[in-house]
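Duplicate of #3305? Posting structure anyway:
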């Protein structure tokens, strides 16, 4: 039997729970005139995207936000970038939010004449599907080794790389 373990530091020993799904997005855009204030566009876009995320799912949110802004470069087109992770309890909600963000940016492209490029800057992670039978076996083994206080399964706020694997391998 092959087993994948993903130990993480925590305050207590817990049974295997689940994790958040994550889609890492990178958005780059070019402002066509040097008179546009790129900070205004970024704040407007991030606020709108945040509202899209919050209105789509109660437990969905934006995490790990990184913004690269050159506020004004005279006489040149200004290229801006921000990247973030969409966190969601399941990958389907995260994919739906990603689709809404892509549609939103496509609409902005036509209305404001700002060219956008949206890409994944890392691989997405699906939520971890826990195997309760293996979790019980590991818990019993830990109890036999003297670790008696084992907490109930919990949802981790961070995404795990093995989440995607857990959807194909029991």
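Output from current build:
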């Amino acid at each position: 039997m092959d087993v994948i373990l993903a130990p993480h530091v925590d305050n207590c020993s817990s049974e295997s729970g689940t994790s958040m799904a994550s889609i890492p997005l990178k958005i780059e855009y070019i402002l066509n005139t040097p008179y546009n204030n790129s900070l205004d566009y970024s704040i407007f876009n991030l606020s709108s995207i945040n509202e899209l995320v919050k209105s789509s799912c109660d437990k969905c949110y934006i995490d790990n936000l990184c913004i690269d802004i050159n506020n004004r470069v005279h006489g040149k087109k200004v290229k801006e970038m921000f990247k973030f992770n969409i966190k969601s309890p399941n990958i389907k909600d995260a994919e739906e939010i990603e689709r809404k963000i892509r549609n939103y940016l496509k609409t902005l492209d036509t209305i404001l004449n700002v060219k956008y490029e949206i890409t994944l800057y890392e691989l997405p992670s699906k939520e971890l599907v826990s195997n309760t039978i293996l979790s019980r076996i590991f818990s019993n083994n830990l109890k036999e080794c003297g670790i008696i206080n084992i907490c109930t399964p919990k949802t981790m706020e961070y995404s795990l790389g093995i989440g995607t694997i857990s959807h194909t391998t029991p």
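Confirmed duplicate; merging threads. The CA atoms of residues 69 and 80 lie 5 Å apart. The longest helix spans residues 91-112.
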